[in-house]
Automatic annotation (TrEMBL):
Catalytic activity line of the entry: a very long-chain fatty acid + ATP + CoA = a very long-chain fatty acyl-CoA + AMP + diphosphate; a long-chain fatty acid + ATP + CoA = a long-chain fatty acyl-CoA + AMP + diphosphate; tetracosanoate + ATP + CoA = tetracosanoyl-CoA + AMP + diphosphate
Record organism: Conger conger
Subcellular location: Cell membrane
Domain AMP-binding enzyme C-terminal residue range list: 501-573
Major localization class: membrane
Membrane topology: Multi-pass membrane protein
Pfam family, one: AMP-binding
Record-level GO BP terms: long-chain fatty acid import into cell
Keyword annotations from UniProtKB, A to Z: Cell membrane, Fatty acid metabolism, Ligase, Lipid metabolism, Lipid transport, Membrane, Nucleotide-binding, Transmembrane, Transmembrane helix, Transport
Protein name per its UniProtKB record: long-chain-fatty-acid--CoA ligase
Domain AMP-dependent synthetase/ligase: 63-375
Gene Ontology terms, MF aspect: long-chain fatty acid transmembrane transporter activity; long-chain fatty acid-CoA ligase activity; nucleotide binding
EC number: 6.2.1.3
Length: 621
């Protein structure tokens, strides 16, 4: 009996220790499991990258097409493409471009297309002939379109039929530069453009020789994806074959397998849509359900119809779904995992409460950056967690940052100062061979601006993320804000310099300071501009609207503030912090305010009634 009592006592003590350990280290098990999963993925990546001959995402697709030719690869508007059909169609694409376009291995082809299967299949066809693809944002026009095209060094542009008018605006310039423009249509009557769909149809679907891409290496560009950054016009970030593999593995981190169905509603010109979604699905062998544009009202119907198990999101997408009317069947779906970024804590909670037990894999990272975080614990609101091994492999830190001067705070030695726990700091990540910063194609100056030197010791080199983060007492990482001349609205980065340039073309405006302000109930910041008028001029709302309407909808400033002068720093930089804090409430701002009224197609005087309507949500932004 005494032995039994001792045994029970021992079990009680062990149980108590387990409870205390779990209380003291509640995330220990998840930390260990995540470490093992990352170690396994890292081993797989090393094995893939060391394969000879080179094994790319394309080779992964070709292997899947050979093993499971009849497996559904893409579902789009009720139509399906098997892996085999996608393989054959991309053979036709590659062959038609090889025969009719001035391209050869190592060239870049720009894609100006919307969400459709041909976007994905054209990329596969280009990869088969050793070419990289530049993914142009289909919202850009005029000067921005020309800039995006020219900076990637492409000599061929492939255009969707519905975007023909946008390209015709800049076609004279493209023709002067001897650019070949192909319209994805059966025929084309515009001089300077050729049809492409008919050429693809006529081409053979026989496999293309691997000799056509024999010189592609792990460091060769696979993609150019554009990011607004902090300096105005979009910049083309280089995605090498190695980097493409790394970013495509995020689905594997989330446990996605060949049995999953991945729903892509995000634009394919985004890293989230193309890399995390499309090439990620190739890496996991999954099926893709593609939609032209996100629709909150059709989202869950599509998920049910196509047995979707994995969805991709940005913060705004979650909010849009939560803004829909409640339905009795909104938990009736098979979605088990959501992968994305920018989920606000309150929206995240509401999303789970409404739509069921869905694992949310929140990711932090940038297209061009050399550091990323994954919230593998599911902690609501966090973007990741400090992990010893991760930090050892990819050294990073949060440093003190002066938002007024827009520069890191440095000590008497000229070195940066690490932010304290709970304090917002600028995320910087050490540039190493394992964590390189490849920069932007064709712009050494812009690349250099993202490099930060003498951070913790003289001569060291770090990547400047441009983001303020904070780490709490439990080592969870949270996004705080963006710095510099960029803000984010509706999932898009808006470069203030580019918008200011548009204001400069308005006759009545002398100068403009563009920034983003918060709106209750919305993710990110919406555009606002403080402007000064030329001497003797009056504000011309119709003229301003006419110029601004040429910008993508997400970049158009919804509010304008008329000032006598714009406040500057001692180094003649526009001060935005005070303007951002003051916002757009008429009772709080002493200057005249205007609101972009879509119905009136003009800027109208901003009233307290309009402000309350925006606050209540009766005016949609």
């Amino acid at each position: 009996m005494e032995a039994l009592h001792m045994h029970l006592a021992a079990l009680a003590i062990i149980s108590l220790l387990i409870v205390l350990f779990k209380y003291r280290f509640p995330y220990f098990v998840k930390d260990v499991l995540y470490t093992f999963r990352i170690a396994r993925i890292s081993w797989r990546m090393r094995h893939i990258l060391n394969k000879r001959p080179l094994y790319t995402i394309l080779d992964c697709f070709l292997e899947a097409a050979k093993k499971n030719p009849n497996k559904t690869f893409i579902v789009f508007e009720g139509k399906t493409f098997s892996y085999s059909e996608a393989d054959k169609w991309s053979n036709k694409v590659g062959r038609s471009l090889w025969n009719h376009a001035p391209v050869t291995e190592g060239d870049t082809v720009a894609l100006f297309l919307g969400n459709e299967p041909s976007y994905l299949l054209i990329w596969l066809g280009l990869a088969k002939i050793g070419c990289a693809a530049a993914l142009l944002n289909y919202n850009v026009r005029s000067k921005s379109l020309l800039h995006c095209f020219s900076c990637c060094g492409a000599n061929v542009l492939i255009v969707a039929a519905e975007l023909k008018d946008a390209v015709e605006e800049v076609l004279p310039t493209l023709r002067e530069q001897n650019i070949s423009v192909f319209l994805l249509a059966e025929e084309c009557d515009t001089e300077g453009m050729e049809s492409l769909a008919d050429k693809i149809e006529e081409a053979s679907d026989e496999p293309l020789s691997s000799a056509l891409r024999a010189n592609v290496t792990i460091g060769s560009p696979a993609l150019y994806i554009y990011t607004s950054g902090t300096t105005g016009l979009p910049k083309a970030a280089v995605i090498t074959q190695q980097r493409l593999w790394g970013a495509s593995s995020l689905q594997t981190v989330g446990g996605v397998t060949a049995e999953d169905v991945v729903y892509i509603t995000l634009p394919l010109y985004h890293t989230s849509g193309f890399v995390v979604g499309f090439t990620g699905a190739i890496g996991s062998g999954a099926t893709i359900v593609l939609r032209r544009k996100f629709s909150a009202s059709q989202f869950w119907d599509d998920c049910r119809k196509y047995n979707v198990t994995v969805i991709l999101y940005i913060g705004e997408l979650m909010r849009y779904l939560c803004s829909t009317s409640k339905a009795c069947d909104e938990r009736d779906h098979q979605v088990r995992l959501a992968i994305g970024n920018g989920a606000r804590a309150d929206v995240w909670k509401e999303f789970l409460n409404r739509f069921g037990s869905i694992s949310v894999l929140e990711i932090y990272g940038s297209t061009e950056g050399n550091i990323s975080f994954i919230n593998y614990t599911g902690k609501v609101g966090a973007i990741g967690r400090v992990n010893f091994l991760h930090k050892k492999a990819f050294p990073y830190a949060l440093i003190k940052y002066d938002t007024l001067r827009e520069e890191p705070v440095r000590d008497h030695r000229g070195l940066c100062i690490e932010a304290a726990k709970g304090e917002a700091g600028l995320l910087v990540s050490k540039i190493t061979k394992k964590a390189p910063f490849l920069g932007y194609i064709g712009s050494l100056q812009l690349t250099e601006k993202k490099r930060l030197r003498d951070v913790f010791e003289k001569g060291d080199l770090y990547f400047n993320s441009g983001d303020l983060l904070r780490i709490d007492q439990h080592n969870f990482i949270y996004f705080h804000d963006r710095v510099g001349d960029t803000f984010r609205w509706k999932g898009e980065n808006v470069a203030t310099t580019e918008v200011s340039d548009v204001f400069a073309m308005v006759d009545c405006i002398q100068e403009a300071n563009v920034y983003g302000v918060r709106v209750p109930g919305h993710e990110g910041r919406i555009g606002m501009a403080a402007v000064t008028l030329k001497e003797g001029a009056e504000f011309d709302p119709a003229s301003v609207f006419s110029q601004v309407s040429g910008l993508p909808a997400y970049a158009q400033p919804r509010f304008i503030r008329i000032q006598d002068s714009l406040e500057m720093t001692g180094t003649f930089k526009q001060i935005k912090v005070k303007l951002v804090d003051e916002g757009f409430c008429p009772s709080a701002v002493p200057d005249p305010l205007y609101f972009l009224d879509d119905k009136e197609k003009s800027y109208v005087p901003m009233t307290q009634e309009i402000y309350h309507a925006i606050e209540s949500g009766s005016i949609k932004l």
